[in-house]
Write a structure and sequence with these properties.
With 304 residues, the protein is mainly alpha-helical. Among the domains are: 117 residues, no CATH class; 70 residues, no CATH class. The protein is built from 15 helices and no strands. The longest helix is centred in the first third of the chain and has 18 residues. It is elongated and about 85 Å long. The structure holds heme C (HEC) (10 copies). InterPro entries: Cytochrom_c_NrfB-like_dom (IPR053875), Decahaem_cyt-c_DmsE (IPR020015), Multihaem_cyt_sf (IPR036280), Multiheme_Cytochr_ET (IPR051829), NapC/NirT_cytc_sf (IPR038266), Paired_CXXCH_1 (IPR010177).
Length: 304
């Protein structure tokens, strides 16, 4: 079933591609092979007669796609041709095979349709509206299949894969204050679904706060005395990826506070007091220590 779905999905992609293209000879050939269902009788063994020498090809047998676990395993079905298309008269360069990556004559969409046909599940519900698909990123921009362990699936290695393209985020995550991504404690996909999600920035939660609450549950409240910006969006005060200020703060206290509390705070009774409150570095937090909200009966000013 999956295979049939796969083939027809691919044909739809190809047909729409051809409609807008002038020189599509290799793709023409590929369609022909699909229409003829020109799969080889020998399966992987036949391919390996010629392709065995490359380490890279054989390593697929150390990964999930090379294992026979049940009848829906790739190697229990069309094997190599499940991804590379029917062999037909390929046997070398005579006829092209489906190939992946930057050198492939196939569009990003076509390449992806091969993988999606088998991986069309809830995890990738929002793929078609994700920032990645909008920018012609392919499954294979992040995933490798001819390997024992796909680096993007390994907690420790994943950030490096993302860093290839997200240079600024990577730099931020090495700043003085950052989430522990470097040492393999956390990974980008703790907060983002790389396959797309229903929220801005493809977050794992419905919004920024819900994403943060999944680990910082103590900040969720409910609080008797709320601090409005905390309930609204943690990003009012925090950089998620990294900051030169402590606690991932966007700017130092009291500068941070004064962005919203400008003017004459505490400018009441004695002028001298006002001065000491306004300076003194951590000043504001010395008194307003419950900055995320308070449950103390007299904690209205976030003091207790
Ligand atoms: C799950 C899909 C999948 C299966 C199954 C698969 N491949 Fe691949 N193959 C790929 C992808 C994706 C690439 C691009 C490089 C990479 O990601 O490792 C690739 C690359 C290749 C290349 C290198 C092509 C080039 O452009 O240099 C060859 C040759 C190849 N595969 C042969 C095979 C053979 C032989 C088999 C069966 C033993 C096989 N593949 C099974 C997906 C697959
Ligand atoms: C008779 C030898 C032979 C057989 C059998 C063979 N190939 Fe190839 N294949 C080649 C040669 C030669 C190339 C070109 C290699 C190059 O350009 O470096 C190639 C290229 C490829 C490529 C790169 C993409 C392209 O179109 O250039 C893929 C993918 C591939 N083969 C997959 C397969 C698969 C899958 C099978 C089995 C269904 C298979 N080959 C069977 C010899 C063979
Ligand atoms: C013929 C069906 C089929 C195709 C085509 C296919 N896969 Fe898979 N893939 C599987 C199966 C079966 C598994 C085993 C796990 C499972 O049941 O989901 C798997 C597992 C995976 C995993 C999880 C790996 C892990 O270590 O757990 C990734 C990532 C993946 N595939 C990516 C791809 C990519 C990228 C492509 C396209 C180049 C692709 N797949 C094409 C069937 C397929
Ligand atoms: C931007 C990088 C990126 C792209 C592009 C990407 N993936 Fe993934 N993929 C990941 C990461 C990271 C994980 C592991 C964390 C997770 O499960 O969210 C993963 C996990 C998976 C898994 C195993 C767990 C699961 O979600 O079922 C499969 C299967 C998979 N990807 C398939 C695909 C397919 C198919 C495509 C193309 C449509 C694709 N991926 C595109 C990064 C990517
Ligand atoms: C602790 C959660 C968290 C982690 C871990 C995380 N992010 Fe983010 N990321 C966010 C949030 C929240 C936003 C949205 C910020 C906003 O809307 O103000 C975001 C935004 C982004 C954006 C879009 C805006 C921008 O800043 O460029 C990219 C790209 C991004 N993250 C990539 C990554 C990568 C790559 C990693 C891993 C190195 C990563 N993120 C790790 C929470 C996280
Ligand atoms: C091959 C390049 C590439 C790789 C690898 C890559 N991305 Fe992206 N990513 C992009 C591009 C291009 C965009 C869209 C432009 C932008 O926002 O920077 C993007 C956008 C994003 C966004 C912003 C979404 C939005 O709505 O603003 C997030 C989050 C993100 N990527 C996370 C990741 C994570 C996590 C990984 C690793 C698992 C990753 N990316 C790997 C190229 C890549
Ligand atoms: C997957 C779990 C997880 C998620 C999701 C998460 N965090 Fe964290 N956060 C951590 C861990 C782990 C630490 C480090 C704690 C430690 O070192 O004691 C941390 C530390 C912090 C710190 C203190 C940093 C420092 O330098 O002291 C802040 C601030 C923070 N997180 C804010 C956020 C915000 C804002 C979000 C949502 C955008 C978020 N976190 C999402 C796990 C998470
Ligand atoms: C009004 C600004 C502001 C907002 C909004 C805000 N924080 Fe903070 N956050 C701070 C300040 C200031 C500190 C440093 C506290 C200190 O040093 O005592 C801090 C520290 C933290 C810490 C590390 C220390 C601790 O208390 O565990 C975490 C984790 C944290 N914030 C998470 C969050 C989360 C999650 C959100 C969103 C629900 C959020 N913050 C919203 C100002 C804010
Ligand atoms: C993004 C804007 C923003 C930032 C940054 C911010 N606040 Fe607030 N703060 C508010 C808003 C809005 C209210 C609610 C005002 C109201 O209800 O009149 C508030 C209320 C307060 C209250 C009074 C609670 C009450 O109702 O009496 C205190 C105390 C306070 N903030 C302290 C701080 C301190 C200290 C900082 C810096 C660590 C800070 N705020 C940063 C927006 C902000
Ligand atoms: C010496 C202790 C102390 C320091 C330091 C302090 N506050 Fe206060 N603040 C208070 C007290 C006590 C109240 C409640 C006053 C009241 O109810 O009349 C208050 C009230 C507030 C309020 C709510 C009342 C209003 O005027 O709207 C804000 C906002 C506020 N402080 C912000 C700040 C900021 C920003 C800083 C740092 C620049 C700061 N505070 C430093 C003790 C302090």
């Amino acid at each position: 079933m999956k295979q049939l779905k796969r083939v027809s999905l691919f044909l739809i992609m190809v047909t729409s591609f051809l409609a807008g293209s002038i020189n599509a000879q290799p793709i023409d050939k590929l369609i022909e092979k699909f229409e003829q269902g020109a799969y080889s009788k020998r399966g992987a063994d036949g391919c390996l007669m010629c392709h065995k020498r490359a380490d890279k090809v054989m390593a697929i047998f150390d990964g999930v796609h090379g294992q026979v676990i049940n009848e829906s395993s790739v190697m229990a079905q069309l094997q190599c041709e499940a991804c590379h298309g029917p062999q037909g008269k390929h046997r070398g360069k005579n006829e092209p095979m489906l190939s992946f990556g930057d050198d492939s004559p196939l569009t990003a969409q076509m390449q992806n349709s091969v993988c999606i046909a088998c991986h069309n599940d809830t995890e990738r519900n929002a793929w078609h509206s994700s920032a990645h698909v909008d920018n012609d990123i392919t499954c294979v921009s992040c995933h490798q299949v001819h390997v024992a362990n796909d680096p993007v699936m390994e907690k420790r290695d994943q950030p490096q894969v993302c860093a290839n393209c997200h240079i600024k985020v990577n730099a931020d995550s090495h700043k003085r204050s950052s989430h522990p991504i470097d040492n393999g404690t956390m990974q980008c996909s703790d907060c983002h679904n790389p396959h797309g999600s229903m929220s801005d920035s493809d977050l794992t939660g419905f919004n920024v706060n819900q994403t943060c609450f999944s680990c910082h549950a103590d900040k969720r409240g409910p609080f008797l005395w709320e601090h409005a910006p905390v309930m609204e969006n943690c990003s009012h005060c925090h950089e998620p990826h990294g900051s030169v200020n402590e606690s991932l703060l966007k700017s130092r206290v009291p500068v941070l506070c004064k962005q919203c509390h400008a003017g004459d705070i505490h400018a009441s009774t004695q002028p001298g007091d006002n001065q000491s409150i306004q300076t003194g570095g951590q000043g504001c937090l010395n008194c307003h220590s419950q900055i995320h909200g308070s449950n103390h009966s007299s904690g209205k000013a976030l003091q207790f």
